């Protein structure tokens, strides 16, 4: 009773598409994807900064 079936999710998806439109949803998706990529780059840069310290300790 507490979980939604596939039909419920399809109806919700249809309503969201009707309200926002496909172009706006595509723009939102690309914005979120870009933000995730920038976050991953920042995390990798942060990891890269700690490695030179470890290497200098070994010498």
Give a verbal description of the structure:
The chain contains two helices and no strands. The longest helix has 37 residues, at 22-58. It has helices spanning 6-20, 22-58. By secondary structure, it is mainly α. The mean pLDDT is 82. The chain crosses the membrane at residues 6-22. Keywords: Cell inner membrane, Cell membrane, Membrane, Protein transport, Translocation, Transmembrane, Transmembrane helix, Transport. This is Sec-independent protein translocase protein TatA. Part of the twin-arginine translocation (Tat) system that transports large folded proteins containing a characteristic twin-arginine motif in their signal peptide across membranes. TatA could form the protein-conducting channel of the Tat system. InterPro entries: TatA/B/E, TatA/E.
Uncertain stretches: none
Structural class category: mainly alpha
Using only C-alpha atoms, the radius of gyration works out to 21 Å
What profile does the largest beta sheet have? Answer: none
SSE run? HH
Mean pLDDT equals 82
Number of strands: 0
* Distance N to C terminus: 63 Å
Proportion in helices: over 70%
Characterize the overall form. elongated
* Helix run count: 2
The proportion of strand residues reads under 5%
Subcellular location: Cell membrane
Family: Belongs to the TatA/E family.
Keywords: Cell inner membrane, Cell membrane, Membrane, Protein transport, Translocation, Transmembrane, Transmembrane helix, Transport
InterPro entries: TatA/B/E, TatA/E
């Amino acid at each position: 009773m507490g979980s939604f079936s596939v039909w419920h999710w399809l109806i919700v998806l249809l309503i969201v598409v009707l309200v926002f439109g496909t172009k706006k949803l595509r723009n939102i998706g690309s914005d979120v994807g870009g933000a995730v990529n920038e976050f991953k780059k920042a995390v990798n840069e942060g990891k890269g900064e700690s490695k030179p310290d470890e290497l200098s300790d070994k010498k």
